Amino acid sequence: MLRHLLNPMDFSVEELDRLMDLAGDIERNPDKYAHACDRKTLATCFYEPSTRTRLSFEGAMYHLGGHVLGFSSADSSSAAKGESVSDTMRVISCYADIAAIRHPKEGAALVASMKSTIPVINAGDGGHQHPTQTLTDLLTIRSLKGHLDNLTIGLCGDLKFGRTVHSLIEALSRYEGVRFLLISPPELRVPSYIREHLDKTGHYYEEVQSLDDAITSLDILYMTRVQKERFFNEEDYIRMKDFYILNKAKMALAKEDMLVLHPLPRVNEISVEVDDDPRAVYFQQAQYGMYIRMALILTLLELEV
Ligand code: CP
């Protein structure tokens, strides 16, 4: 049966565990997987800019021995002539075995999947979800902390438009004992559907404004960029963009084993002076992103190695 990844909740906790185990094996034994995707093709259909997601997908497919085709902006595809996502994906299905799509509109990946005859992966749909970033985040936390339950995680910055935040909260809410500190200015709180979700699951969460107060109790600090491209006016963005800046002074307040994650790109919200702190793992996180995408491609194509 054709399987897509549109939302991190599309995989059960057991399936996520298997995916992360596979990513770990790929990291340790890359040669074993070097021809796993011989004669297979990945299409990367990116209607929005990307560095990590697109290139880690492409790197993943090359490391699996496969091929890649696609486009990196709407302007360089027939979307510029008015072609619908649905028609584009029907056509891409004729050329590739699996596709990753990023689009500025919420729900675009779902629409793409409806007429596709190949697995479709949501590589970010507007301010909605970014499931493969979440797989990356889960693998990073599990690899470096050893577990995903009983953690206190602070998500800081643009919690309104930050799709990585929405996906990660939903995914972590399936693990016991996870506590969420949602650190944002009032204008950038998480959407109500995320709060309702946490109410339903019964997880502890608190919405706070002060990073200094929250940081002392955290096991994980998930920093995010203020999403300039989703703001309706420049003035609001300028007012918000430097609301939080993680620097050495703030890191001195944190636990010795707290990890700092960030989906990247970062702008000003993490000072470069923090990069050398061993707790800053955001570049390592980007590396995990390729291993988990390799595991995802193999899983959705049902390829055994
Ligand atoms: N984390 C992430 O989605 O980065 P890119 O926008 O560079 O793909």
Please report the distance between the alpha carbons of the first and last residues: 20 Å
CATH superfamily of the largest domain: Aspartate/ornithine carbamoyltransferase
Number of strands: 9
Low-confidence stretches: none
What does this structure look like?
With 305 residues, this protein is α/β, with parallel strands linked by helices. The protein folds into two domains: 8-129 and 289-300, 3-Layer(aba) Sandwich (Rossmann fold); 131-285, 3-Layer(aba) Sandwich (Rossmann fold), CATH 3.40.50. Helices cover 38% and strands 14% of the residues. The chain contains eleven helices and nine strands. The chain has a five-stranded parallel beta sheet. The protein has a four-stranded parallel beta sheet with strand order 2-1-3-4, with helices on both faces. Helix 7 (192-201) links the parallel strand 6 (179-183) and strand 7 (205-208). Helix 1 (13-28) packs across helix 5 and helix 3 (85-95) packs across helix 4 (108-114). The longest helix is centred in the last third of the chain and has 19 residues, at 282-300. The structure holds phosphoric acid mono(formamide)ester (CP).
